[in-house]
Amino acid sequence: MIVVVMGVSGSGKSTVGAALARALGWPFLDADDFHPPQNVAKMAAGTPLTDDDRWPWLDRTVDALRIAIAAHGNAVLACSALRHAYRVRLGRAGAMRFVHLRGDSATIAQRLATRQHRYMPASLLASQFATLEAPDDAIDVDVRASVDAQVAAIIAALAPVKANTDAPPTDRRAIRIDEP
Predict the structure, then answer these.
(1) CB proximity list for 89: less than 8 A, separation 6 or greater
(2) Cα–Cα distances in Å, from 137 out to 29, 87, 100, 133, 134?
(3) DSSP state of 31
(4) First and final C-alpha spacing in the chain
(5) CA 144 → CA 55, 72, 103, 107, 128, distances in Å?
């Protein structure tokens, strides 16, 4: 299973995602690492990305997830995944559960004012909120909670799903049975 920790810039995706991965013992991937140089340059200049900018990035992220899943079986991904179409594209990598780190613009703006990101300026926050299509089926987590509390809430919400993915299959079609 892939758990995608999503939200606008400054919501804590990388921090919470890495902490969640450590707690689960799963590999952690940060979608920021898969942006092509032209996307990084565009964002660093304060220009929001378009869908045409995002598709190749999402495809590179899917490729990295497939490799991680093949090697480890599960993974945690930090990714903005702002629009439904982006989440559908990410879904090409395998079974996913989304975690939406939710916060209002004032809370997130305050966070961005105190952090230094390698290319994402605080001036792009408004465009992130404008692009955001909040998911209906995600685990919803308030960013004002501590990282530990957020991770605990995510693990608690994942427990029924994780238990199902860890259980042996019960459908005979899913199990090779040698019958006489």
Answers:
(1) 55, 58, 59, 62
(2) 22, 11, 9, 12, 9
(3) G
(4) 35
(5) 31, 31, 7, 8, 19
Q: Containing domain of residue 46, as a range?
A: 17-163
CA atoms within 13 A on the CB side of 67: 8
Q: How distant is the alpha carbon of residue 73 from its chain centre?
A: 16
- Would residue 158 count as lying in a domain? yes
Spatial distance between the Cα atoms of 171 and 33, rounded to a whole number of angstroms: 39
Neighbour order of strands in the sheet with 75-78: 28-30, 75-78, 2-6, 96-102, 139-142
pLDDT at res. 98: 98
CATH (domain of 129): 3.40.50.300
Q: How many domains are there within the chain?
A: 1
Residues of the chain with pLDDT under 70: 115-124, 161-180
What pLDDT was estimated at residue 126?
Answer: 78
pLDDT at 159: 86
